Every structure is written in structure tokens, then in C-alpha cells.
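example protein:
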Amino acid sequence: MSYLNEDEVAATAGPGVGPHPQPWPDDPRLDPELLAAGDHRNVVDRYRYWRLDAVVADLDGRRHPLRVAIQNWEHDFNIGSMVRTANAFNVAGVHIVGRRRWNRRGAMVTDRYLHVEHHPDVADLVGWLDAHGYTAVGVDNLPGAVPLEQTELPERACLVFGSEGPGLTPEMVAACDSLVGISQYGSTRSINAGAAAAIAMYTWALRWADQG
């Protein structure tokens, strides 16, 4: 009987690898259950058969200083997608502002490999960022936003995103050190929040991520 929930099943439905042939490698990072049953998680080959805590420890040793904050006022389904992208860029942490419960469906359990912080309100997030030397950069196509492609994001940036539709709240905009927007060339007013987050993280990575 499987004890995985629906999202966990979806996240482990990839081809992966089967059981590891005997004798098993003598490596404390490896999970005996995965070695025996196979590893079908959505992880890169480097982490096949590794225990979850071993993967997190290895990621911690080379995380980028980038952080991502997301306002969770409407239980937006895009939050999961943003978290999954944050995992792909191995950010230092994700900050959920507002409701503690957030829509994890699109994350495909990648939040387990990240450090996720919760802040009940904007003031609490700002206090945390100030205490840890981070610059809050709002990402929203609002009046006064500087085109992202014309901006050099700081290395210790926290990219701040709003909910799909309403975007950043006025309080959050006021709390950000700067505001950037993603240039668009079609007829739509805005792009999907998850897509905007991916573009912004990639832009940061072009400047600051280790390309080796």
C-alpha cells in the first residue's frame, strides 16, 4: 500500500531508476529503501538513491544567496510553481508572506529540498530581510517599475512576487527597495506569475550564479 499523497505520487511518477544491483555501495548518504525499491523522484542523477536529508545538506553547501518572497493572500496555485523554480535555482530560501497554508500542488514536493520561512505580514518579512542584509526587489509591472533587463539585481536580493491577478499589495510595494517589471510585447496586460518568477530568477542567475 502506498502512503504517498496525490501530489507525492505525481512527483515520483517519472522514469527514474530501478533497484540498485547488489552489492550496494558503502555510502552513508544512500537510502536503503530507495536502493531496494528504486528511485523515481524528480531529482538529478547526482542524487539518485540519496536520503532526503543528505540531498538538502549537499544543496546547503552551495546555495545561491538569492531569496524569493511570495505574498499568499489568495491561496494562489502559482505559488507551487514559483517554489519549484526556486528549487531549480537552488535559492537560499523562500519566504511565504500572509497565510501559513499555501498551495503546494505545483511544487511537486520540491519544497522539501528548500528552506521555507513564513511571515504573517509584510513588516515581519522586512524585519527579517533587514536583519540578514537583503535588498527587497518587487517584481510587478506597475507604474514606476524599471525594466528588468535594464536593471542589475543585487547579489543579496530577495525577489518579491504577488498573487496572480492583483500582484503586489501597495504595502509590499512601499516596503521594497526597488521595483522592476518584465517587458512585454503582445496584447496581454500581464504574464503568469509563475512565468514571471522564472524570468526574474534566471535574470539574477545570469549575473550572479556560478556558471561552472
Q: What stands out?
A: The beta strands are 64-72, 91-98, 116-119, 135-139, 146-147, 157-161, 178-181. The two ends are 43 Å apart (CA to CA).
